[in-house]
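Most newcomers find our protein records easier to grasp once they have seen one. Read left to right, the backbone structure tokens trace the chain's path through space. Nothing more is needed to start thinking about how sequence determines fold. An example says more than a description, so a record of this kind follows:
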Amino acid sequence: MKAYWLEEGGDISAAELNKQGVGYEAIPCDESYMERLEAWKQQHHYAAHDEVRLNPETPKHEDIRKHLDAEYHNTVQEVR
């Protein structure tokens, strides 16, 4: 995740996001990730999630990666 101040520039830490009311938690992609993700969704009242699995052999891999890595602004609450 990359977060930065739009007006002043500069990175925003996870601790600062939490102070601003924006929750951030990194869930490792290991054998326990689905269990941890489901627990997080239940705790925060999310019903669904999207999952994207890419590897270098995925058709249009670079285009998809660039799209997912691009700056994204959403006015509704969303988990990415």
